[in-house]
Specification:
Glutaredoxin, single chain, alpha+beta, 56% helix, 4 strands, binds glutathione, Glutathione S-transferase Yfyf (Class Pi), Chain A, domain 2
Length: 201
Amino acid sequence: MYTVYGNAYTRTLRVLWCLEEIGAPYTHVPGDAHSPEIKAVNPSGKVPALGLEDGTILTDSTAIMTFLADKHAAVTFPAGTVDRARQDGFTNMLLDEIDGCLWTANRMTGRFLPEEMHVPDVIPSLKYEFSRSIARLDAMIHGPFLMGDTFTIPDIILTHCVGWARAIKFDIESDKVLAHAKAMRDRPGYKAAFALGQKAA
Ligand SMILES: N[C@@H](CCC(=O)N[C@@H](CS)C(=O)NCC(=O)O)C(=O)O
């Protein structure tokens, strides 16, 4: 049994959804970043974290999903295959160019950096880079999933980022990306994970 730490309206949603897709049992311990219950398992205060049965704690949503996917041979192509390298290409592109822009925008305005460190003037530049990356992604989508006919980790990351973008008013000018996210949100695994966030809120 796994234990997932973090509120489901953060990147923790990615791990919860991944576990739902895999069908592995877990318990969910909601908690805000930097709250005492999160710092008790992850001294950096960041979420998500994953507890294993022997007490080991893993951090970083992508590292956690990759561990789970490899261990359960689901939502991933096997390590060492060309398909896996292409899948990892999508994952890293999304983290660098999509998640990176959104996260920087959050820190320039939100509570994660002291106010005197906020540089809101960078937001238009982030929006420009975000739009350019979405356009590139648009040209890379050829199937129901990013990897064609197979649902994999980058589908989770992109869908989460689309919701995040909407929340902070980063426009998505791609019907293909929007349709992809809509289809992913219809998956039972997404709905089950998302419901945990509603419950906590
Ligand atoms: N790359 C990490 C980022 C983790 C992260 O920054 N999580 C946010 C919430 S979504 C957080 O805990 N922020 C608090 C902080 O940065 O101090 C991951 O994917 O898990």
